[in-house]
């Protein structure tokens, strides 16, 4: 049940996110203006006359002061208008709507894999600290952190796609058109993306559980005759839930950023590919739109995490 106190916490968190979003968009907008070169010259062509370059500046508002340009862009963005691509003239929002589902599917699947594999590994290691199982899990976790995503992705393509022909090597399918095909295309990229997440979840969960299971409280529960499984599930995991939520939240943000490399390896038309191509072509409206949407996603994830904190631990406000 959502109480008045929890609604107050949610409202306070919402108010705190607004300055973060505005500041993020301002920094990105400003940094793009520092990129050397003239966008108007790029659009007009190398052999364009000075008059044509001046016309391009007037058409796209590039001759206006910086704060006027930023204010106009932010006002349109707040109303769902992220401008149009300078190269293709397609609405930036349309491009994002086409590419975002591919990225979100890969990130969501990678996060699920990280939890499904990392949590059992962390529990197994924490249940027998110092054993061969603990050493094995920590070795696997260290390997998962050390192996680059792009290198692991190429190995997965070579083995599962080219040698065994079990899964497609590149491309993506819309989830709304073919759910099974979309999952088959997203599985290898998600595995490559999830390797570091599996290691991080396993290591953090193992560390937190070992600390809890070695505490005086748990030793008292053992002395009272409670079975180890009950102590682990009802007391150990419950006490580390907040720490695990923090790990999952940070991991989701990192997975969003890491999709740029993974999408390039698997030729996936997602947000990473969209922003890389836009940056190479100096298509600033697309870069600004993609960053704006990614900031909104990250801020929303952080907001949900803060709300869940208060649900899992009422002492957090």
UniProtKB/TrEMBL annotation:
Question: Where does the secretion signal sit in this chain?
Answer: none
**Where would you say this protein principally sits, based on its record?**
membrane
Among InterPro entries, the record links this protein to: BPD_transp_1_N, MetI-like, MetI-like_sf
Q: Give GO terms: molecular function aspect only.
A: dipeptide transmembrane transporter activity
List the SUPFAM superfamilies.
Answer: MetI-like
Q: Which residues form a coiled coil?
A: none
The compartments listed are: Cell membrane
This protein's GO CC annotations:
plasma membrane
Q: Gene3D superfamilies attached here?
A: MetI-like
Q: Where are its TM segments located?
A: 14-32, 103-124, 136-162, 255-280, 286-312
Q: Kindly state which keywords UniProt assigns to this record, in alphabetical order.
A: Cell membrane, Membrane, Transmembrane, Transmembrane helix, Transport
Kindly provide the name given to this protein in its UniProt entry. Answer: ABC transmembrane type-1 domain-containing protein
Natural source organism: Afipia clevelandensis ATCC 49720
């Amino acid at each position: 049940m959502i109480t008045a106190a929890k609604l107050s916490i949610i409202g306070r968190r919402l108010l705190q996110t607004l300055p973060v979003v505005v500041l993020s968009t301002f920094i990105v907008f400003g940094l793009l203006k520092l990129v050397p070169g003239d966008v108007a010259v790029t659009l007009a062509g190398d052999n364009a006359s000075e008059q044509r370059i001046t016309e391009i500046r007037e058409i796209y508002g590039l001759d206006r002061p910086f704060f006027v340009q930023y204010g106009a862009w932010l006002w349109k963005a707040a109303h769902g208008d992220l401008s149009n691509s300078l190269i293709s003239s397609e609405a930036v929002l349309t491009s994002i709507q086409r590419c975002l589902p591919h990225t979100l599917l890969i990130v969501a699947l990678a996060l699920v894999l990280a939890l499904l594999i990392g949590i059992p590994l962390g529990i197994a290691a924490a249940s027998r600290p110092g054993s061969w199982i603990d050493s094995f899990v920590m070795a696997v976790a260290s390997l998962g952190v050390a192996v680059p995503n792009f290198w692991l992705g190429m190995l997965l393509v070579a083995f599962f796609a080219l040698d065994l022909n079990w899964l497609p090597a590149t491309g993506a399918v819309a989830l709304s058109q073919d759910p099974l095909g979309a999952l088959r295309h997203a599985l290898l990229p998600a595995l490559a993306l999830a390797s570091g997440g599996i290691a991080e979840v396993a290591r953090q969960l193992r560390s937190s559980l070992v600390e809890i299971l070695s505490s005086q409280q748990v030793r008292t529960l053992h002395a009272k005759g409670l079975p180890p499984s009950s102590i682990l599930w009802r007391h150990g995991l419950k006490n580390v839930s907040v720490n695990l939520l923090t790990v999952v939240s940070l991991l989701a943000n990192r997975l969003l950023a890491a999709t740029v490399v993974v999408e390039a390896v698997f030729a996936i038309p997602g947000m990473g590919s969209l922003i890389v191509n836009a940056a190479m072509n100096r298509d600033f409206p697309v870069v600004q739109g993609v960053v704006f949407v990614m900031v909104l996603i990250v801020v929303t994830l952080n907001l949900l995490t803060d709300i869940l904190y208060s649900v899992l631990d009422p002492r957090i406000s």
